[in-house]
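Subgroup meeting minutes
Present: P.N., E.W., G.H.
Scribe: E.W.

1. P.N. recapped why we're keeping a running log of single-chain structure predictions: easier to compare across weeks, and new members can see raw inputs and outputs side by side.
2. G.H. added today's entry (80 aa).
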Amino acid sequence: MSKTLEFRDPYTAGHQNRVAKIAVAIGQEMGLDTDKLKGIHLEILTKPTQLTALVMQMIRLHAEASYEILKNIPCLLTFI
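Output recorded in log:
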């Protein structure tokens, strides 16, 4: 699945895979069953529809918020 995703969109494939793994880990902590965990993982990796304007706005705000959190950490200045 991840190889197909990388072929389709190599720029975001790694990020989607990491987000899917984190979501599954959270689901495990919540006690979700295996079928639900697999569903969460696949939904994140293969969202079948285009993102809505609201979701795109949330994604953009996520990046901006991350920058605001990290920008004052001196050891990270070379990466920003």
